[in-house]
Amino acid sequence: MDVVSWIPVTVLAATEDLGGRVFGLDSQTVLQVGINLFHVFVLAAILTFILYRPVRDLMRKRTEKIEGQLSDAAQSLESANSMKEEYEQKLAEIEVERVQILEAAHKQADDSSKRMIDSAKQEAKAVVERAEKDARSEMERLKDEVRLHIIEVSTLMAGKFVSGSIDENSQNKLFDEALTELERVTWPS
């Protein structure tokens, strides 16, 4: 027997049980509907007390945690920016000092050249090269320090933000991407 021919037979059997009616609205049906509505309201009230309040508290705590992390990240960023400004100021001071050293070397070379031209040229050349080498090496050292500090602060900020919002696999993937990006960055000369 296929499904289509089975449906009318079932409907006919159901209507015969109800005395030829398709839907019987008697006191028993009304009572059952009332009891079912009462059960639905009781179940909704119980679930509200059991589930809604703990979920609301959990969401409030999570919101507070995220706000705390965002404020920590903002403070870390502010700290990183102040450190960056401090290192840029130090680089500027080193540049001024380098210029002063070069000027002193040139003046000394000019004075000495009047007395002994050959020895003064060699001495001035040595002083200038040493001063430039020192200044370059100092600038390179400070650039490396600045880069390392920025990487440390960025890593701490990213670690705080990421630790609360992603799993370990995603964190490893992001770390690898960041490492690849940092390897591509070159410092200006």
Summarize the structure.
With about 190 residues, the chain is mostly helical. Helix content is about 90%, strand content about 0%. The protein has a domain at about 1-65.
Please describe the topology of this protein.
Layout: H1 3-17, H2 27-115, H3 117-163, H4 168-184
Helix pairs in contact: 2-3
Question: What are its keywords?
Answer:
189 residues, mainly alpha, 4 helices, 0% strand
Low-confidence stretches: none
The rough form would be described as: rod-shaped
Radius of gyration: 40 Å
Helix content: over 70%
Give the termini separation. Answer: 88 Å
Number of helix segments?
Answer: 4
Averaged pLDDT: 80
Output the helix-strand order: HHHH
Query: Structural class from helices and strands?
Result: mainly alpha
The biggest sheet amounts to: none
Beta percentage is: under 5%
Number of strands: 0
Task: Provide an overview of this structure.
- The chain is an all-alpha fold.
- The chain has a domain of 64 residues.
- The protein has four helices and no strands.
- The termini are far apart.
- The relative contact order is 0.06.
